[in-house]
């Protein structure tokens, strides 16, 4: 079981979770952050620092947010040559700059 970042993060991307994660498994899309499902060690350090409470423990591998994270890492997305895969840390990759179709379909949030 891993942690996932839900829709409350869209257009917020506070990055507190990035700073708190001891294994560097929180990656930045364009409008949302994503936790790598294989790199996450299930420590939970990210959840309490999220200002919008977007991070939760994934109860099932078929959940909407877990499936979206898998898409982000393992399926080619628009404006990206191939999948991110399992690079071994967000710092290695840097800002990915694209999101999954599910996030792209959401209306932009005015902050």
Polypeptide structure, described:
The protein is of the alpha+beta class and about 110 residues long. It has a single domain (about 5-100), classed as Alpha-Beta Plaits, CATH 3.30.70. It contains 4 helices and 4 strands, in the order βαβββααα. The chain has helices spanning about 15-20, 65-75, 90-95, 100-105, and strands spanning about 5, 25-30, 35, 55. The longest helix is centred in the middle third of the chain and has 11 residues, at about 65-75. The model has no long low-confidence stretch (mean pLDDT about 85).
Notable traits:
two-stranded antiparallel ribbon; two-stranded antiparallel sheet; 111 residues; Alpha-Beta Plaits; 22% helix; globular; alpha+beta; single chain; 4 helices
Largest β-sheet summary: 2 strands, antiparallel
**SSE topology string:** EHEEEHHH
Distance between the termini: 32 Å
Label the overall shape. Answer: globular
- Helix proportion range: 10-25%
How many domains, in number, for the residues?
1
Which CATH C-level class is it? Alpha Beta
With strands numbered from the N-terminus, the spatial order across the biggest sheet is 1-4
* Rg, alpha carbons: 13 Å
Query: Beta-strand level of the residues, as a percent range?
Result: 5-15%
Low-confidence stretches: none
Q: What is the average per-residue confidence, as pLDDT, rounded to a whole number?
A: 87
DSSP, total strands: 4
Report the CATH topology name: Alpha-Beta Plaits
Secondary-structure content class: alpha+beta
> How many helices?
4
Oligomer designation: single chain
So, CATH architecture? 2-Layer Sandwich
């Amino acid at each position: 079981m891993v942690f996932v970042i839900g829709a409350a993060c869209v257009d917020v991307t506070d990055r507190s979770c990035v700073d708190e994660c001891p294994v560097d498994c929180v990656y930045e899309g364009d409008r949302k952050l994503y936790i790598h499902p294989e790199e996450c060690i299930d420590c939970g350090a990210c959840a309490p620092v999220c200002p919008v409470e977007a991070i939760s423990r994934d109860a099932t591998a078929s959940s909407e947010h877990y499936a979206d994270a898998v898409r982000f890492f393992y399926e080619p997305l628009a404006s990206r040559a191939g999948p991110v895969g399992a690079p071994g840390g967000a710092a290695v990759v840097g800002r990915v700059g694209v999101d999954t179709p599910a996030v792209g379909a959401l209306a932009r949030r005015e902050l």
